[in-house]
Amino acid sequence: MRFLRSAFVYISKHKLYGKREIDRMRYVTSIERLAKQEGKVESARENIIIVLEVRFGEIPLNICESVNLINDLSVLKKLHRNAILISSVEAFAELINEISL
Questions:
Q1: pLDDT band at 24; cut points 50, 70, 90
Q2: What is the DSSP letter of 17?
Q3: Which helix (H) or strand (E) holds 95?
Q4: In the list 2, 14, 83, 94, which could disulfide-bond 51, CB 3.0-4.6 Å?
Q5: Closest by alpha carbon to 71, among 20, 37, 33?
Q6: Average pLDDT of the chain, as a whole number
Q7: Which pLDDT tens digit goes with each residue over 35-60?
Q8: 8 vs 5: CA distance, rounded Å
C-alpha cells in the first residue's frame, strides 16, 4: 500500500497523467480495499470452521453454511473466540442461532 501512495504522489506532482486517469487509480485502490476486507472475512470464516473441526471432528453442514453467511468481521471474531472456548458443537449451533435472530 505504501508503494501505491508513493506512486500516486509522484504521478500527481509530475503530472504524468490527467485528472481522469488519477481518479481511475483512486477507484482501483478502493477495489483493493474491498478485496482485502473480503479476504479478512473469508479467512475468519475458515478459521472458525477449522477450530471447530480440530476440537469436535466433523462439523454439521448447517453450521458451516451459517458461518459462511456471516459478513460482519466483528461477529466472526467473537464466534472464533467462542469456537475455541465452547463446550460442544451443539452449544455453538445455539450461539449461531441466537446471532441469526
A1: low
A2: S
A3: helix 89-100
A4: 83
A5: 37
A6: 82
A7: 888 999 999 999 999 999 999 999 99
A8: 5
Contacts of 12 (CB under 8 A, 6+ apart): 22
pLDDT at 92 over 70: yes
Q: Which amino acid is at 33?
A: R
**3-class DSSP state of 81:** helix
- The pLDDT assigned to 1 comes to 46
Full DSSP string of 32-73? HHHHHHHHHHHHHHHHHHHHHHHHHSSPPHHHHHHHHT---H
**In the block, which residue shows the cell 472475512?**
41
